[in-house]
Amino acid sequence: MSSLDPFRMIGKTLAGHFLVQSLVGEGRSSIVYKGLHIGPKKPVALKCFKLGSWLDAARAETFLKRFREESKAASQIGKENPHFVRSIGSGMTTSDDGVYVPYTVLEWLEGHSLAQDLTDRGLRGESGGRPLTELLVRFESVAKALTQAHEQDLVHGDLNLGSFFLVKEPGSESPTKILDLGVAKVIRDLSREIAPGEAPQLIATPSHAAPEQFDPKLGDWGPPTDVYALALVLVEVMRGRAISSAGEEKDFAAAALDPKKRPTPRSFGISVFDAVENAFAKAVALAPSERWSTVAEFWSELESAVRSEEPTRRVLPAEVLAEEESEEVQVPSTEPRPAMKPATDDTSPNGVLIDATGLASSAPPAVGASPPQVQAAAAAAAAAMPAAPAERERVSALPVPAPAPAPVGGGAPAKSIPAPTRSSPSAVGAGLVGVTKSTAPAAPPASGSGGLFKIPPPTPSPKKLDVGRITPAPPQPSDVAATGRASQPHAIPRPGLARSFPSTPAKPRSDLPPPKVSVTAPPVLSPLTAVPATTPATPARKPEPVEVRRDTPTMPIEPVSDVPRISPVEREAAPQAGPGAIEIKATPPPPPPEKVVENGADGARVVREMVPPPKANVSVGDLPSVMVDEPDQRKDKDTRQRETMRIAMPNAATPPVPWEAAGTNNALVAPATKEDSDSVVYPPRTVRRRRGLWGVALVSFLVVFVLGAIFIGLWHYSTELP
Ligand SMILES: Nc1ncnc2c1ncn2[C@@H]1O[C@H](COP(=O)(O)OP(=O)(O)OP(=O)(O)O)[C@@H](O)[C@H]1O
């Protein structure tokens, strides 16, 4: 195999849709090419798996079928959650060497993997790792995404630095994406099923494989498997260097299975707090059952550990905030803290979080994500940012004295909220833990400062301005550390603040009485409809019913024939009725229409009648179908005047509109409105009528007849004379 193109794929078209263009990179178990999705002309990544010779012709088809089935759930979550790379399809091809190559087609991502990032930083001489506080922010979204996958029984099974892709696309929904969710487990299961004993035992990356991946006796792969690997990835980033992947599989196995050699931060020389080390120790425990059972638990514990040890006023480095894709903003409010209740429901994605940094407030912030207020709060947050770099240095420094309790509630003694522990999962699980501000003990928070609270979210609605507002309430003694920093959805989180993993059950805080929250939604009346603005959003607008009114004057003329005056064009435009037809009754006569009488070239009298044709863009053209009930010309005049015309309209509920008809011989399709009629060009229709033609003929006939009879009579009389 060529090292430039190991499978010799470049230039091939896979499945008739994907042109392989260039090699992107080669990992342990796959080779990634850049390709072109020929139809939509979009770049794609073609990930070709190196499975080995056990996948032969006999097994290839079964493998592909099962691979597709098993990958369904993973590709589905990729469609729903932007933190996973999206899978477009999968297939099987053969290399020039006759090797069967299953492949997946993935959305193309601009950027590079976390592995590459670390390498690049090393090359740039940026030695040193990143502080855990920063990682907790940067990777919070992927931790949440993994939790979501676990809830759907999906295990990644091969997390490593290459599994995290740092997207460099402006406006990207998620700057960090997880690659290869579920692929390792699917391949492991299928290889065991299809080629038992032949396929390799270890599918995951040896340096990051959990003990149970080396020794199945310890248990099956599950969320703790990913917790283990994620912990190693965090350690690598904190350290600023990847764990060496050089070595034999058996050496990695020996290390992973050694109870005395746990890969914690300190084992790699990283100086961390005891609580942080303990959280990691549990994450990389030998037995899966001894680890954090979910990523959410691990994450919350790390946050708690960081909070419990560091000064509580932590300001995030500006560049982290700029790069972070998080969904929540912790916004310092300049207004008095509203009535709040403890965050007992951490599952609500729209929850507004109030944390505790002692920022004074003086007016009730609106809860309904009122844009102006959120902007004001965000501006206040931005104003607080300049202190960031200095603050970061101080935060990273070790050890750090415990924060002094901040006086709260207008001088009341501070009540410090204990750092959450496993024994107090209420705070840990939800990640909703108060932070006491220790950097400014002399400036106590104005009122009600304590804890991290979650205000029930307003009804999700794009028009949040009208949702309501929080009614301010007197400070609660229990609001020890609340600060009035509200976090709005789609805002930037800060480490150590609210964490709300979807999997974590809602747990009320036992140490705080429930403060009151009053969300009122004063009805806002629409000037036109007087419907409260809080009414559920109206569905997409249906087409306005078009009132078809025969208000264009037409000329009543003498009927020449009984053929109804509807042009072929009008007939074409009015073939059939549909649901929601509007009835238009042809009843009383219209105002006198314009009448043009002129002499034809042959002396005949020509009457020009202004007949409106169907209007293409409104009265007929926009309508899916039009049905015209033509007046039956055999009926008498009055009956015909009462004939109706129906124009089919989707969802039209317009009552019948009287059609001011003039006489019986009017065109049946008219512009819908006066405005429409203004824009309609009425081609004159010439009607020629020859008056008295038949009379002349008749008289002539009679004259000839009478004259003939006289002539014959006279001739007969003369011949009979002697
Ligand atoms: N969807 C994608 N868009 C763009 N580049 C991608 C995509 N998926 C993977 N890559 C890149 O392709 C290269 C090879 O990826 P691959 O997953 O095969 O290797 P790896 O993750 O480094 O190693 P391993 O297969 O051992 O996990 C990496 O640089 C990766 O960042």
UniProtKB/TrEMBL annotation:
Domain Protein kinase: 18-329
Enzyme Commission code: 2.7.11.1
Compositional bias per record (Low complexity), positions renumbered to this chain: 527-540
SUPFAM superfamilies: Protein kinase-like (PK-like)
Sequence positions that bind ATP: K47
Entry annotated with the keyword ATP-binding: yes
Span list, region Disordered: 320-356, 407-427, 439-562, 574-595, 615-640
Record-linked InterPro entries: Kinase-like_dom_sf, NEK_Ser/Thr_kinase, Prot_kinase_dom, Protein_kinase_ATP_BS
SMART domains xref list: S_TKc (SM00220)
Gene3D superfamilies listed in its UniProt record: Phosphorylase Kinase, domain 1, Transferase(Phosphotransferase) domain 1
A Pfam short name: Pkinase
Highest rank taxon of the organism: Bacteria
Biased composition (Basic and acidic residues): 541-552, 631-640
Keywords on record: ATP-binding, Kinase, Membrane, Nucleotide-binding, Transferase, Transmembrane, Transmembrane helix
Keyword Transmembrane listed: yes
Segments crossing the lipid bilayer: 693-717
PANTHER family linked: SERINE/THREONINE-PROTEIN KINASE NEK, SERINE_THREONINE-PROTEIN KINASE NEK2
Similarity remark: Belongs to the protein kinase superfamily. NEK Ser/Thr protein kinase family. NIMA subfamily.
Name of the protein in its database record: non-specific serine/threonine protein kinase
Organism of derivation: Pendulispora rubella
